[in-house]
Amino acid sequence: MFGSQKAVEREQERVKSAGAWIIHPYSDFRFYWDFTMLLFMVGNLIVIPVGITFFKDETTAPWIVFNVVSDTFFLVDLVLNFRTGIVIEDNTEILLDPEKIKKRYLRTWFLVDFVSSIPVDYIFLIVEKGIDSEVYKTARALRIVRFTKILSLLRLLRLSRLIRYIHQWEEIFHMTYDLASAVMRICNLISMMLLLCHWDGCLQFLVPMLQDFPSNCWVSINNMVNHSWSELYSFALFKAMSHMLCIGYGRQAPESMTDIWLTMLSMIVGATCYAMFIGHATALIQSLDSSRRQYQEKYKQVEQYMSFHKLPADFRQKIHDYYEHRYQGKMFDEDSILGELNGPLREEIVNFNCRKLVASMPLFANADPNFVTAMLTKLKFEVFQPGDYIIREGTVGKKMYFIQHGVVSVLTKGNKEMKLSDGSYFGGRAGWLQQGPRAGCPAAEGLLPAQRSACLRGAGYFIQHGVVSVLTKGNKEMKLSDGSYFGEICLLTRGRRTASVRADTYCRLYSLSVDNFNEVLEEYPMMRRAFETVAIDRLDRIGKKNSILLHKVQHDLSSGVFNNQENAIIQEIVKYDREMAQQAELGQRVGLFPPPPPPQVTSAIATLQQAVAMSFCPQVARPLVGPLALGSPRLLRRAAPGPAPAASPRAGPVLPARRLSRASRPLSASQPSLPHGAPGPGPATSVRPASSSTPRLGPAPAARASGPSPDRRDSASPSAAGGLDPLDSARSRLSSNL
Fold first, then answer.
1. Is residue 644 within 8 Å of residue 702, measured between CB atoms?
2. Do 489 and 538 meet the contact criterion of CB atoms below 8 Å apart?
3. C-beta of residue 715 within 8 angstroms of C-beta of residue 645
4. Which of 250, 347, 414, 586 is the most buried (most CB within 10 A)?
């Protein structure tokens, strides 16, 4: 109420200085006193109508005690109202001056409270002693005067303080327990309806009683004049509720004019109460979940939009799934809500809403709290569906993203190039796969035009002289999951996107625009350096480089802008980023079925410097054997593919194609070649030297049985006699050249 402990102490000093016996309207004493008066008032509103209507003897001890106690409390409350402060203008000011309190109370509710607090029972008891009993009996009609106690109902109007307290309780329940607040409101509404039914039931019997039960009233028709008060009250209440709910007339239709008017009055009151109940219940239901109702109204507009444009069913389902994951059945105007709050409170709410993101992101865990707050206040929440491309390679970047939940793939597209020169061969894979697609596209650089035009699909080639480039197209992929971020590279370099990012699952992201990004990093240079270092590391993992970032980081390192502690923090952030990428990739590989085995190596490319084995090639149906001898490396001939000849009975033992283990497998043609002098990927494999006397190639490199070649010059070579496969021949020639 007052905002702080000092304000409460200041208000207490005001109460003491106002004078003796001044009661603060928000004091504990006044709260409990108002609660006690509420109980007495409810008791009077229920008991007094029943006592006046259904009981003849009003001098019993319980009745007298009840009236004496109630009237005493009402009179004491009348006195206390002269000493209780008054709340003015919606709790903004509290009046504590005794003179002003007295004048204000006399002008407002004093007359009503005084009339409702007159002890009428005491007056009747005193008058009874001095009046003859016969005269007293004739004054029974004055019993209606007892009904003036109903004027206590007006005291509810002066209990606005208690209603305010109840409203505060409802607000507390609404902030913590929405269901409890709804139950309280519904109970208040139902209680008021039952109280009106109770009064109407008493009125249905009171009017015939005051008329001495005429013969055409409902009590005389049913011969219930001398029945017990409980039976009379039950039938009267049933008759009143039937009228108020508009479901009938009770036991029978009204016959007397008095009953007809009472029935019409009950129907009017009942219809009014019913309309109030429906209105309050509707407003209550709408207020309980206004955000869901707003979402439903919004989605109805979306459905009408989709119907108007005749969108396909798959589009509609995708839009439906997006709305379900983005808003989760509730829609808020978050920008408007946060905009109405002050800065510190808005920052606290944003920090609380993004607590999971902060907890899962190493970048924020090692950063300055002020930097984290500055970043979080500028984030915008977004949701992406599986398969959505969040960013595309080559586009202009205007945002970066932080992953709260989900997994994304960072994809890069590029041509990998490897140079092959004299003594190498290429294209064997397509021939062995029986006219399959090329793993790489050979581009002749040092060949003559006639030789360049001979590079056709479907045959293997050996380079006699010249240089070719093996170009392979492939995607490199990196996984990112909860706590990671991406899209910062183009914001740092003001360039275009260096990779595409695709959502693998439903992703809940926070985006940061380039203007806000640069605005925050200008105030925190160390975090800019951290972003740049992580960006360089990520580019290195996907096989790319950025000279601008490298120059910036090297300049910072050489100039000594950051101390050792800051450099250690930056390296820790880079380390965490690598670990999270590895965890995301491992999490994607684990599935219901085991991963497929690695592809087997079935071909090799030999150069003067290294042997390069083609990867990503499935295993051939049968081993490559036969008298295929390699001649001079200076000779280039084309061997057209043809059917494999039948196996000869004089064939020697079949030697299977030698396979390299995955650990020692050389680089494939789709990977960049090692520089000269670099160590090989695995230990060297000993092979037999091939003869160089063979002047030309034999048949195309297709799988066939071993046997003597039709070409006697091919069969004369030791490699042909031994049935060497092309892999052994390539390695033999490599050894001889080295």
1. yes
2. yes
3. no
4. 250
CB 461 within 8 A of CB 700: no
Query: How many of the other CB atoms lie within 10 Å of CB of 422?
Result: 17
What's the sign of the alpha-carbon dihedral 735, 725, 466, 470?
negative
According to DSSP, the β-strands at 468-480 and 441-444 are: antiparallel
Q: Which residues contact residue 454 at a Cβ distance below 8 angstroms, ignoring those fewer than 6 apart? A: 461, 638
CB 472 within 8 A of CB 439: yes
Show the tokens assigned to 686: 């000993």
List the Cα angle 474/383/395 in 5-degree steps: 45
Among 229-243, 289-303, 631-645, the range scoring the smallest mean pLDDT is 631-645
Q: Can you tell me which residue has the tokens 């001979």?
A: 454
Q: What residues are paired with 478 via a beta bridge?
A: 410
Q: Which tokens hold the place of 433?
A: 């796969």
Structure tokens at 225: 């004049």
The DSSP line for 374-422 is: HHHTT-EEEEE-TT-EEE-TTSBP-EEEEEEE--EEEEEEEEEEEEE-T
Cβ of 675: how many Cβ atoms within 10 Å?
8
616: left (phi over 0), alpha (psi -120 to 50) or beta: left
Q: How far apart, in whole angstroms, are the C-alpha atoms of residue 295 and residue 304?
A: 14
Q: Is 433 helix (H, G, I), strand (E, B) or coil?
A: coil
Burial environment of residue 92 by CB neighbours within 10 A (0 to 12, 13 to 18, 19 or more): exposed
CB contact set of 735 (below 8 Å; sequence gap of 6+): 687, 689
pLDDT for 634: 36
Cα separations (Å) of 634 from 422, 455, 537? 7, 17, 44
Whether the Cβ atoms of residue 556 and residue 513 lie closer than 8 Å to each other? no
Backbone angles phi, psi at 248, to 5 degrees: 155, -170
> How many Å separate Cα 565 from the centre of its chain?
37
- CA terminus-to-terminus distance, the chain: 92
The shares of helix, strand and coil residues in the chain, as percent rounded to the nearest 5, are: 55, 10, 35
List residues bridging with 639 in a β-sheet: 460
Q: Is 131 left (phi over 0), alpha (psi -120 to 50) or beta?
A: beta
Place of tokens 């009981």: 55
* pLDDT one-digit tens code per residue, 540-561: 877 777 777 777 777 777 777 6
Helical packing angle, 290-308 and 313-327, nearest 10°: 160
pLDDT score at 364: 78
Question: What whole-number distance in Å separates Cα of residue 627 and Cα of residue 714?
Answer: 7
**Among 367-376, 578-587, 668-677, where is mean pLDDT lowest?**
668-677
Residue found by looking up tokens 């409890």 in the block: 180
Could you tell me the pTM of the whole model? Answer: 0.49
Residue 32's contacts (CB-CB under 8 Å, 6 or more residues apart) are none
Express each pLDDT in 600-625 by its tens digit. Answer: 433 333 333 333 333 333 333 344 34
- Of 689, 691, 686, 694, give the one whose Cα is nearest residue 732: 689
Instruction: Give the pair of three-digit tokens for residue 362.
Output: 């190493």
pLDDT of 597? 47
Cβ neighbours of residue 708 closer than 8 Å, sequence gap 6 or more: 627, 648, 650, 715
